[in-house]
Amino acid sequence: NAGVTQTPKFQVLKTGQSMTLQCAQDMNHEYMSWYRQDPGMGLRLIHYSVGAGITDQGEVPNGYNVSRSTTEDFPLRLLSAAPSQTSVYFCASSNRLASLGELFFGEGSRLTVL
Amino acid sequence: GQQLNQSPQSMFIQEGEDVSMNCTSSSIFNTWLWYKQEPGEGPVLLIALYKAGELTSNGRLTAQFGITRKDSFLNISASIPSDVGIYFCAGQNYGGSQGNLIFGKGTKLSVKP
Fold it and tell me: What percentage of chain B exceeds 70 in pLDDT?
């Protein structure tokens, strides 16, 4: 059982470049979200989705876009990368029939912006 | 906005020692959760608490939902080297989506064999 799969695991970008972090889950979870983790800052919510076609902003949404065309996939797009977006990004999902806080996380995508 | 204060920030302990960490907030939460993140991995849920005063165990781990609903505690008994990692608390209120889930900044645990 794959759970939550993120790609790529590592990426280096130049300032101004765009890219998409992919996230897929095979648990048929309605809820999906993206977090970034920075040293000493814990996990901060970027965007989340309560189902296909529905997305909303979290605590730190600026510079990121998301879409949810299917239940399984929730890609995160960086429109014009900036050094401040250097971070480790985690995708997570949860089942609305359980607690929404019971998250399943992917292994993370480490992004460096030069 | 709501914030969680998690302490201590880091701990260096000897194998076999017991560990205690806590999480406090100025706001009330209806759910408290504890996650562990090992190096290079995503966080994994350890314990979820849904009722004020609730005490729940998972092996050597015990967590409590504070009676005021503004705090939670995690204890690890007889620590072993594989307990190394960052432990995060998280609080959530009813009626919302994942937007209502707030994480603490983590307690980094190091265990010396």
Answer: 93
